[in-house]
Specification:
The structure is a single chain. Helices cover 43% and strands 16% of the residues. The protein is of the alpha+beta class and 102 residues long. The strands form 2 sheets. A 3-stranded antiparallel β-sheet has the order 1-2-3, with no helix packed on it. It is extended, with a radius of gyration of 18 Å.
Length: 102
């Protein structure tokens, strides 16, 4: 969750979103993020998710969602994060292999 911006920004991580199924039958806990590097990384992730133009939906006043028209280069944030994680894992495995050879 992000509240505010700039110096006054409050950033939290939690196990779920504020949907009814998560708030009526259980207690949800959110933890504040203080580390500047982690805050920066999470902000970049939010920017990526908000820039998604392949799976984006917009909530209407009547509670329905409409699919937004894609503009610019295609960006599916879920696929983007998957490919980043996969590349990072491949890099870690290659680094481990090279250390074992030495």
């Amino acid at each position: 969750y992000i509240f505010g911006c700039g110096e006054r920004q409050k950033l939290y991580i939690a196990s779920a979103d504020f949907m009814t199924r998560n708030t009526l039958r259980r207690v949800e806990v959110a933890a504040p993020i203080y580390d500047p590097e982690l805050r920066s990384q999470l902000n970049e992730m939010f920017i990526t998710m908000l820039s998604d133009n392949q799976q984006a939906r917009e909530l209407q006043n009547d509670g329905n969602y409409i699919r937004l028209q894609a503009e610019g280069a295609p960006l599916n944030s879920q696929e983007y994060f998957f490919s980043q994680a996969y590349a990072q894992k491949q890099g870690m495995e290659a680094e481990t292999s090279s250390k074992e050879i030495r």
